[in-house]
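[agent] plan:
  1. take the single chain provided in the ticket
  2. run structure prediction with default settings
  3. attach structure tokens to the ticket
  4. add a short note for the reviewer (M.T.)
[agent] executing step 1
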Amino acid sequence: MIENKKDFKLIPKKNPKSLLPNALTIFGVCLGLSSIKFAIDLNYSMAVIAIGFAAILDTLDGRVARLIKGTSKVGKELDSLTDVISFGVAPGFIMYFWALNEVGKFGWMFVLIYTVCCALRLARFNLTTIDENENWKINFFEGVPSPAAAGLVLLPLILNLTNLIQFENYAVLSSGAILITSILMVSKVPTYSLKRIIIPRHLAIFLLLGIGIYVSLIIFYTFETLFFTGVIYVLLIPLSFFHYRRLNKKSFIRLSEEDTEDIL
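[agent] step 2 finished; step 3 output follows
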């Protein structure tokens, strides 16, 4: 007698719309793995570009899933596994092949620390829940998200590719970048997520204009634009920290007032 077993399905029959976002996620992990191949071939510019496209796909897959109502549990888990590979393993290998191998065993240890911190950060993110009374927290991450962390880890390499400034010892700079980024990932420092950012209709045309200008800069000044984008993100971290504290204080005061009113 054959027992009935539930078969694992990547695309459930009840929700075939999940095909598109899951396909984007898988494409992202292919780009992450390809970046390692580019680094092995010493083609570091293509390695950085591959990670950049993987980050774009990581941003799109979740939004596409919500837009077409194609979210699924498999998609959520697949996204996390992809992030570990594309933004944890791949950037670590790239930096090791480029500069960290110069510091010997410590270089490989830094790669291991970064990858483990990335996995821990993603595990914590999957378990994070937001209280209904604190919906404003959805615009903040706890710690630096993995795609942004990958960009911060690659900043020394990106700076080298710009030819703006040249350092004699990139191994030390890369070691500092990967260690600081690892700490920021597993820390509880709030950073902007911009998941639910609302743009007024009358400002939409300026947003599109800004996107067009940014894409043009990426095309003609690829690594310079990526480097300054990373610098701006670093400067936004303390700003997001104080913004979070201010909103949290307001929320605490409001909840305290509501509790007082209930007692009275």
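[agent] step 4 note for reviewer: The mean pLDDT is 85.
[agent] ticket updated
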